[in-house]
Amino acid sequence: MAFVKDGWYCAGWTAELKDKPSSIVICGEEIVLYRDTAGKPIAMENRCPHRFAPLSMGQVVGDRIQCPYHGLEFNSRGECAFNPHGRQTIPSRAPQKTYVLEERNGVIWIWMGDSAKADPSKILALDYLDDDRYAIVRGHFKVKANYKLLNDNLLDLTHAAYIHPTTVGTSTDAGIRVKYSVRTEGNRILSQRLISEVRPTAQFLGLFKEPTGDFYSHLTWTAPSSMFLDLSMVPHGTPKRSVKEPDVDCVLIPGAHLIVPETEHTTHYFFAVSRSADIHNQEKTQAMIALSHKAFMEEDAPIIEECYRLMEGKEFLELKPAILESDRGSVLARRIVSRLLAAESPDAGTEARLGDGVIAE
Amino acid sequence: MAFVKDGWYCAGWTAELKDKPSSIVICGEEIVLYRDTAGKPIAMENRCPHRFAPLSMGQVVGDRIQCPYHGLEFNSRGECAFNPHGRQTIPSRAPQKTYVLEERNGVIWIWMGDSAKADPSKILALDYLDDDRYAIVRGHFKVKANYKLLNDNLLDLTHAAYIHPTTVGTSTDAGIRVKYSVRTEGNRILSQRLISEVRPTAQFLGLFKEPTGDFYSHLTWTAPSSMFLDLSMVPHGTPKRSVKEPDVDCVLIPGAHLIVPETEHTTHYFFAVSRSADIHNQEKTQAMIALSHKAFMEEDAPIIEECYRLMEGKEFLELKPAILESDRGSVLARRIVSRLLAAESPDAGTEARLGDGVIAE
Amino acid sequence: MAFVKDGWYCAGWTAELKDKPSSIVICGEEIVLYRDTAGKPIAMENRCPHRFAPLSMGQVVGDRIQCPYHGLEFNSRGECAFNPHGRQTIPSRAPQKTYVLEERNGVIWIWMGDSAKADPSKILALDYLDDDRYAIVRGHFKVKANYKLLNDNLLDLTHAAYIHPTTVGTSTDAGIRVKYSVRTEGNRILSQRLISEVRPTAQFLGLFKEPTGDFYSHLTWTAPSSMFLDLSMVPHGTPKRSVKEPDVDCVLIPGAHLIVPETEHTTHYFFAVSRSADIHNQEKTQAMIALSHKAFMEEDAPIIEECYRLMEGKEFLELKPAILESDRGSVLARRIVSRLLAAESPDAGTEARLGDGVIAE
What we know:
The structure is a homotrimer. The first copy, chain A, is of the alpha+beta class.
């Protein structure tokens, strides 16, 4: 298993972690999440060191989490702070592993690696999630595939015309005019696409009033696997509108697509899609939910899971994939992940030269 | 995994491959099947070389198959013939593996090995499937067991009295008179059984009018695992009737039993059972379907799957099976398969001397 | 896999083995059980030596078990005694492995190891199961965890206050007074607990009439994994009542908890719980059944299975568990099992020094 540990991952939505503990597996590590009496989120190794019960099945007792099996209690530093039995001797043992958390934009971000390296300024900005000019829908799916296949999927939107013709994809008509550029900025990838004079896709929910317009797709991918997908329709010839400046003549539907490796073979997909128009219309909100479910769970996931199954446990490079120009974004992302992996563990990171000869940096 | 690759296998029924592509796994290989504009069936490696999506989830576009994920198109030689993206550069990469197919008697036969060795004259003749004097029912089951256990099952019909007493088996009464012979002819086995003056089994559907008769079971097994089972009831003392000469005094129920290894641990069972009498009676046809399902899926498959589970992944020979005289057919078939395996790969084929001392060639 | 083979395990309840054969897996061995014409239970290797079908799917024919597939018959010594086919030659092959059985107290006990060492005097006495002053409920659950985790669970009843507060557990109130002792006697462990002046738990079904009383829990654990749990409530200050002397002022609810390794990863849990009061009340009996199901299947099993999953296939010791004083019973049991394993196979038995420094013998 090769995961980038020194990176920020979504561990859940703020609104969903309340008074009960919850559990999540990230990069193969079993984690319990709970809030202390001040509401601060805490994350630690989920497995109790006594008989290995999951702390997440226990209760929050003040600032501590209590094991469901025999009642040992652990504080926010992961130390056993109470043993209710006999002479109440605290067992001598290293504390549970704890994790650095950062809560912002309604996302609980977790740093899986060395705490000393955790730098919150590297977290992907998702300020629109706190902006009440947007109607927002959040969700969490799981996919039976390695997380890199989800990076590939989102970084190459050419698939939309084939997989998503009635949801988030534009037509494959020959007449379509596309401008497309991809560049890297450190450990980020900026992929920008403009399709001119095109009919709005179904995900615009009929909110863009003209029959055609200019469709901007600006994707910011941040290593290891968080994406901000800034989609908008504007009247033909009008400049792209910033997500900070929604207005009536355009429709903005920015989205967060947060890919989180659960295990080598399974992946969390946290998403938050939104819209700048008709934001109090509950029917439109229901349609956004239905469309997200359909586009991902009925259209993307079955294909991605089949791809992963057909890879038969082999490494991507080992299968000598055909590389197309349209793979530029996903190839560059794989190279960045590869370099990060190699920095953490010299044996990993084999994809640093993927697509050489086809894709230049 | 050890499969005989240089052999013809059933890849499906002609009637079931129409305008949509389909997929099948044979000998562990993932295959897409589709028809070109002329109706000719085409088979190739199912996994797209780009991102490894299954071509079978895509569409047929003229003579090509289009990948469902990003729209690459492949021609009947397995070559990528169209890339819809950017400058439309065709990726340089070896073509998909393709397979030799031969369509006859309503069966799509596939040659899994070296194309140069594919000899259609070796295909098992099943002419009754094109003969309108028979009512025919076709089906396809799957079993969780190695394919050799299905060869064993069909090559030793003594199990019928125990597993199938109310469907395809005769009674185990002591008074029963059986003549039985098994011989090999090259890579074929001819197993012939005559049970005299016996009541017709349920599979004769009440069509044989006398209370008892002579029951002929002539089995032709063709390596690796295709069988023609020529069953008939004739009035006592009458010679066996050829499948080419059905007549009113006898009832012929010839059947094809085409065993196809899917993986080492799972097997396709394609069957086509038929009858020479009352062929337009839909109730009888429904009864044939129900009886095939019961005999195989409720009677054979549960036992065969348990046998395979109890073998715990071990080789048949390694378990030192007790060999009976009645195993003659299945032992000879295992020896032939063993020789064919050894011819393809010197490390395989360990059962060439199975049953030595009990079963002579 | 490491199982204590030289030990008595429950192979089933007397009342449930009737005229049909049954199967069970114990210590990873597939076993068929049936009764001969005299009603004597017989146990042998379930896998037929011919084509490996499970004999348990066959029929009992007189004193023999008949294979469901081709009709070979095996006698109580595991010998093939009849081959119905051809010249009826008996195949020369070692007989099926057979097992020593001992039926008492309504339990079919099986000895998994060397027959010469089988000593019925070592079987755990459960005489209350034959005593008509008790109402008895028997059951059989399966758990996805190694059997040692069930030993641990029952030998450390401190978990009851956390997992079972509304079924079999007492309150965790600080004011509670507990006397607790654990000692070994050869390969037995006697764990005795007295909780004074406590409210009866739900499992006493409202039968103990006073608001509080003295609650005795006397557990006898017999290697490898059979337990007699002698629970009773008596008026405060009254001595513990023997299971042989139930009386109206006390309520006795003795129980058998017979833990049987199925495989390394799965365990049978046979239990028989009873009560000495209001024994003809069917509603109380139904409540006992419901409470056993809830306490084990809804409360214990989910935690135990999660513990085992979180151990990720590692050995208990390898995970360096925190050992508490309250682990005394389970640690001593693991040491005994460890010594028995080492006696049978020098490579096994690594837990002989578990808890050194915390738990003295």
